[in-house]
Amino acid sequence: MTWIMLIFVIIAIVFVGRLIRSEDQKSQLAQLHQHTELRADAFNMRISSDAERVSQLMSGLHRNDVLDSDISELRTRARSLMASRSEILEIFFLKYDGTVLGSFASPTPLGDLSVDKGQKYDRLETTLAIQRSHRNDSVSFSEPYALPLEGSPFVDLVIPYRWNHDEIIVAARISLWMLLRETTKGLDSNQFRISLLHNDLPIVSATTDSKRKTITYQVPLHPLPQGVNLQVSSYAHGLITQNVLFWVISALGIFLVLTLVGLIRFNIRQNHIETALRAETALRKAMADSQLSGLRVTDMNGRIVYANQTFCRMLKYDSSADLIGQMPPYSYWPTGDVSYRLKELSDALIQGRLASTTYEFSPVCADGSRFYALLHVTPLRDTEGKQLGWLGSLTDISEIQQAQEKLTAAHERFTRVLESMQSAISVVDQHTNTLLFSNTSYDTHFGENNEGHLMINRALNGQDASQGMFVDVYVEEADQWYAVQEKIITWTDRSAVRLQIALDITERRRNEMLLAEQQARSEQNSRLVTMGEMASSLAHELNQPLAAISNYSFIVKSLMKKVGVPTEHEMFHSVERIDAQAERAAGIIRRIRSFTKRSDPNMELNSVDHLVDEVLELARLQARRHNAKLEHFIAPDVKEVWCDAIMIEQVLLNLIKNGIEASVLPGQTSSVTMTIYRDAQQNVVFEVADNGSGIADEDKERLFDPFFTTKSSGMGMGLNICRTIVELHHGRLTISDNIKKGTIFTLTLPTKEFVQR
Asked: Left if phi > 0, otherwise alpha if psi is -120 to 50, otherwise beta: which for 121?
C-alpha cells in the first residue's frame, strides 16, 4: 500500500509539476510579449519624439539665411536638444545634392562632427533616405550603419524643410546603442535580454548576460526602415540535477510544501501579469485617446464595443457609453442614399465580402451639426491572427475638403480664362512629347493631339521664343502664319514641360504681303510709265536719223544708176539692205510707240520661212561675236503663222540673243537651236533651246517681272516686253529646263481662227 501511495504521490507530483511548468511557460510567454510591446512602444515613442523635436529646430527663425544670420541661435538650440537627448550625436543641414550647409556636434563625450560645412555627405544609406524623404515629402530614416572608428551602429533621421522657397534637409545622426540604453533604463537585465536586429542579424544589445535563452520575441520598429526589429529574450532558471533516490525522497517530504509554494508562486505571477496587463491596457487606452483620428471597435456582428475619446469628441457625444452597443445603422449615420450605402458596406464587411473599406461621408453629430470625414475600416485580430472584429478610423477632412473646393474653383476660373483666349495654348512633356494640356482654340485648330504643337515647334527651327516676345513663323504643313511664344515651365509633378502660345496671324500676314505686293506693283508701274515716256521720246528722236538714212540710201542708188553701176552689183544689194533695215528699225520704233499707247498689233498671215530667215540674219551677227552655233528646224506642215511679223521677230531675236549669252561658258561651244512645229491644237510653237548653265527655280517665277535680270549688265525689260507682245497675240511664253543642259523658252501662237474668235 505504501508503494502504491508512493506511486500515486509521484504521479501527483509529476502531474502538478508539469501543470505548473505549462502554466509558467504561458505566463512567461505572455509577460515576454507584453514586455516586448512595451519596450517597442517606448523605443518608437522616443525616436518619434526625437524626430519631432529636430523638426522644430528652425521654427521661429525668420531670417533670409538661417545658416548664416542665426547660426548662434541655431547652434544653441541644436546643442540644447542633443544635451537633453544623448542618443542624438550630430545635427547637420544639407542641400538635396548632399552639400553640407552646417553641422553641430553633441556636447556629450560621444559627440563628434563627421562632416564639415561645404563637404559632400555621400553616405549611401543617408542618400537613399534623402531621396525617399524628398519623394514622399515626409520624415525618413536611413538604414543602420557604423562609422569606421566606432563599432556602435547609427541611423540618420532625415526631415525635408522648406525655407524661403528653398528646400533643405535637416538630418540627425542617432546612436542606436544610446537610444536602446535610454529606453531600457530600469529593466531587470537578469530576466530579459534586449537586442536590435537588422535583417535578422544582431547589431546592438542592451545587456551582455550569457545565460541560456528559452523564449525569444521580435517586434518591428515602424519608424525605422523595414528589417529593423526589437528582440527580447527571457532567461531560463538553472535546473539542479540530483540523485533519483534523493529526488524521490525529497519529493515525498516536501510534496505539500512544494505544491503550496507552486500555487502561491503561480498566483503571485498571475497577479503581476494582471497588473502589467492593466497598466498596458491603460497605456494603450491613453495612446488611443490621444490619437487625432477617432477610433471605433465593433465585434463580428457590427456592434460597437469601444470608442476612444477622440471619436466621441468628433461626434460631440458626452462619453463612449452613448455609442457602445449600437448596431448598424448607427446614430451618427446620415439619412438617405448615404445611409443605404454605408449599410451595404457594413453588411459586406460582416459577411466577409470585403476585407477593408474606405468611404467619405458627412456624419451627423449629437447636436445635429455635420462635417466631412473619412472612414477607414480594417480587421482587428489578436496575437494568433484570429479576427475579433473591426477597427474603424474616423478622420476629420473638413479643412482638406474646403481647400480642395477652393482649389477646384481657382482651377475652374483659370481654365475659363484659358478656354476664352483666341490663342492656341498647349503644354507638352519635353521628353516624351505627350500632350498634357490644350485649350479649346488649340483643339479647334489642331485636334486633341500633339501634332499641332510639334509642327509649330519644328517651324521655329531654333528661333528663341522664350524671351517674352512673340516670334512670327510660317508653318508650311498647315500653310498658316502664327505668332508663337514658348517657355519651359515646371509642371504639377515638378517635371520640365514646354508651354506654347500660338496666335493665328495668317490673315494679317497675307494683308501685309498683299500691301507690299501692291506697293511693289505701284513702283513698277511708275517705272514702266517713266520708261514708256522715255521710249516714246526716244522713238520720236530716232525717226529723223532713220528718215535721213533712207533718203541717203535712195540718193546713193540714184547716183550709182547715173554712173552706170549695174543693178545686179553687190553695192546695189548692200544699199537695199541698208534701206530695208532702216525701214525695219522704223517699224520697231512704231511698235514701241504703239506699246506705250496699248494699240493692237498688225496681225496678218506671215511666211514662217521668211520670218525665221529675217530673225536668223540678225542673230548671226551676235552668234559670230561669241562663236556660237545656230540651228533651226521647221516642221513640213508649218507654212504660215498669224501674227505681227515685226513684233514676233523682236521676241524670237531677244530669246536667241539671251540663249547665246547664257551658253557662253568656258570649255564649251555655245549652241542655240530653234524648232518650229504645230501642237495638237494646231498652234504654231517656237522652241528656243540653249546649252547654257540653266536658270535657278527661285528665279524662274520672277524672270518675266519688269527690271528683274540675271545678267551683270541689263535693264530687265527684254523678257517683260516679250511677254507683253505674246499676250497681245493671245499666246503663251513659258520656260523649262533642257533635258541635256540649259534652258528652253517655248513661244506658242494660236491660229487665226482662235484669235478672231
From this structure: beta
